[in-house]
Amino acid sequence: MDAPREAAEREAAEMKSMMKTLKVGEQAQFEYALMDEIVKLQEALELNQVHTKQEKAELQATADKKAAAKSSSAEARERMAAMEAALVAAQQGELARIEQRRKEGEERMAAREAESERVRKLEARKKEEQRLLAAEMHRETIRKALEAERANEEAKRKSDEAKNAALRARLD
Question: pTM for the whole thing?
Fold first, then answer.
């Protein structure tokens, strides 16, 4: 930007030296032409500044986009890594819960089997006791029946003896 300004100053200095030599009418024409050139030069400088600012803004926007892309890419990688870690942790947690439920199920089954075995043994012991009691009652019933039969036979024998003794007594 300094180079165009220096060039403009040099041209202005040259113009001044030329103006001294020109006549008044020509000098006025030259001043108008010079003013046009100065205005054009100022417009060109302003346009150059605008273009420079636009280029800087575009470069900054590109750099910002690249930085944002890098940052979002890094954030996305971090999010993906965090999600993968969470997924692995969730899977491990679920596997641990499944293993715990399996162990609890096995413990319940073992407890049920032990209870069933205890109930079976208890039932078998009750049946054996009932069978022994029934056998004892049967033996007792048979013993009582035999005693009753013996008592009947004894009573019949005594009755027969008494009848025989009465008949003998009558006969005698």
Answer: 0.37
